[in-house]
Amino acid sequence: MESEHLIGYTIRALSNLFRRQLMSHQPPDGKPCSETAGMIMGYLCEHVGDQLCQHDIEQVFCIRRSTASRFLIALEKEEMIERVSAPNDARRKIIVPTEKALAIHAQFIAQRDALEAQIIRGIPREEVDAFLATAKKIQANLAELPQQKTC
């Protein structure tokens, strides 16, 4: 079967194009942000009240302690996050996004929503719904497959 007729190939191509468009927008301060750092910051902004610590980030993103530490130090240096002592355990440091991070995240969400509107432009709602239903079925089928733990 030719690659353009393979579902996995199409999903990968769409994912690359979508991600490239999202990453093409620079933050207001002009400093580029890596995709992983942006994902970590986004996760923290969407879970503000959850009292997340570094270990939670390691688990969610399936990254090593040293990798999480490096990203969090960089985000802290850029004044995107603060580490504050947990109320019940001063040794535990909770990661809190700053106002700067929350503002950048809000802009990112607006850009993402605008991109979503662009990619479905000219496609009837029924076709979008059918695509999403099919994608969910593919996702469920993939989730049923046995997988090797990589982290």
TrEMBL record:
Keywords: DNA-binding, Transcription, Transcription regulation. GO terms for molecular function: DNA binding; DNA-binding transcription factor activity. It holds the Pfam family MarR. Residues 4-140 form the HTH marR-type domain. The keyword Transcription applies. InterPro entries: HTH_MarR-typ (IPR000835), WH-like_DNA-bd_sf (IPR036388), WH_DNA-bd_sf (IPR036390). This is HTH marR-type domain-containing protein. The lineage of its organism: Bacteria, Bacillati, Bacillota, Clostridia, Eubacteriales.
